[in-house]
Amino acid sequence: VQLQASGGGLVQAGGSLTLSCAASGFTFNNYDMGWFRQAPGKERERVGLIIWSGTNTYYLDSVKGRFTISRDNAKNMVYLQMNSLNKEDTATYYCAARLRGGSLYVYWGQGTLVTVSS
User: Fold this and answer.
1) N or C: which end of the chain has fewer CB within 10 A?
2) pLDDT in tens, 80-115
3) DSSP per position, 57-108
């Protein structure tokens, strides 16, 4: 099983980035996918969730209207489009998978760093 996150980098405040996560080794369309982030000295938080079918998404309040999560089950990919980035979005971002309808995230990617400069 592998979740490979990519797309992080340095971006100016107000800019955009799209993160990608490639999944392999499990039946992707049986799993809900989440994006999490963890900033230095802070707890990990979930910024978005997309259910297995892609029909429902959920967001952390602070990113609503700015971040969009999507998935392509044919390609085993999940994405996080991030717009209007600010310094508070600086963190390492992780993708994770939970069996659909479940609560425990059982597979985790290695993380990709997003740094927003002012």
Assistant:
1) C
2) 999 999 999 999 999 999 999 899 999 999 999 999
3) EEE-GGGTTTEEEEEETTTTEEEEEE-S--GGG-EEEEEEEEETT-S-EEEE
pLDDT over 90 (residue 71): yes
Contact between 81 and 16 under an 8 Å Cβ cutoff? The reply is yes
- Phi-psi label, residue 18: left if phi above 0, alpha if psi -120 to 50, beta otherwise: beta
Over the Cα atoms of the chain, what is R_g?
A: 13
What six digits make up the tokens of 18?
């799209």
DSSP character at residue 117: E
d(CA 89, CA 85): 6
Tell me whether residue 108 is exposed, middle or buried, using C-beta atoms within 10 angstroms of its C-beta: 0 to 12, 13 to 18, 19 or more: middle
CA–CA distance, 47 with 88 (Å, rounded to integer): 12
